[in-house]
């Protein structure tokens, strides 16, 4: 009988996660004997949960809020992406050791490859926001060879802290200074919630953005964010954030179940239908 491998996503809370739907789709599609389940784990329970991972016969799993930083310190081996980003979202077992990585940068780049492949010819990028997601995006951009990145944030000190951790290619600035640099950017990436319901308006007009620039948003609810709507009005090519969610899941699935799954339109539509159904918030 074939071995039944099992994986998980854990967080606190965890009901919002669409990872079980994504991985369950692939398990069915490829007829793999395995399972992927959501597990509620509080911060206090995390150390014991990780100690028991091998004993409980997990192949590995995903860690989400609030565990991405805490997991980092409890692993035997961590990949370069996780070290640069400072957080782990994917864990697997290798030679009896707990290994971890961060697939957010991979997912971001793979999504752009699928939606707007010309992004790799960009020379200059402008990233809005300076949180954990921005760190993953900056790592992806630098890995792709983009030579200049403007990092824009309301709190300049936070942007400077992130920029300094990546070196001279990343330049921190506030929103007032970003307007003058906007025409230089081939690639515009929003990692903030600005413009969304209940949030302040996006503080930068895109009227002087290059018409051949590409605009991307990592948010996928809604699929067309206010930032992307504004970019489309300017005539820019755009990339929504749903593909990042889907592509970041593929490396973990391959680690746990031994097959690299494909992100296709069937899966994308399945997640869109779920989003529209409003069953998970």
From TrEMBL:
Active site, per annotation: 68 (proton acceptor)
Matches recorded under InterPro entries: Aminoacid_DH-like_N_sf, NAD(P)-bd_dom_sf, SDH_C, Shikimate_DH, Shikimate_DH-bd_N, Shikimate_DH_fam, Shikm_DH/Glu-tRNA_Rdtase
GO biological process: amino acid biosynthetic process; aromatic amino acid family biosynthetic process; chorismate biosynthetic process; shikimate metabolic process
Residues involved in shikimate binding: 17-19, 64, 89, 104, 220, 248
Pathway(s) this gene product operates in, as recorded in its UniProt entry: Metabolic intermediate biosynthesis; chorismate biosynthesis; chorismate from D-erythrose 4-phosphate and phosphoenolpyruvate: step 4/7
Domain Shikimate dehydrogenase substrate binding N-terminal, chain residue ranges per copy: 9-91
EC number: 1.1.1.25
Keywords assigned: Amino-acid biosynthesis, Aromatic amino acid biosynthesis, NADP, Oxidoreductase
Record field: catalytic activity: shikimate + NADP(+) = 3-dehydroshikimate + NADPH + H(+)
Domain called Quinate/shikimate 5-dehydrogenase/glutamyl-tRNA reductase: residue spans: 122-193
A GO term, aspect molecular function: shikimate 3-dehydrogenase (NADP+) activity
EC class (word): oxidoreductase
GO cellular component: cytosol
UniProt domain SDH C-terminal: residue ranges: 241-268
Assembly and oligomerization: Homodimer.
UniProt similarity note: Belongs to the shikimate dehydrogenase family.
Function, as annotated: Involved in the biosynthesis of the chorismate, which leads to the biosynthesis of aromatic amino acids. Catalyzes the reversible NADPH linked reduction of 3-dehydroshikimate (DHSA) to yield shikimate (SA).
PANTHER family assigned to the protein according to its UniProt record, in alphabetical order: BIFUNCTIONAL 3-DEHYDROQUINATE DEHYDRATASE_SHIKIMATE DEHYDROGENASE, CHLOROPLASTIC, SHIKIMATE DEHYDROGENASE
Protein name: Shikimate dehydrogenase (NADP(+))
Organism listed in the record: Ahrensia marina
Origin organism lineage: Bacteria, Pseudomonadati, Pseudomonadota, Alphaproteobacteria, Hyphomicrobiales
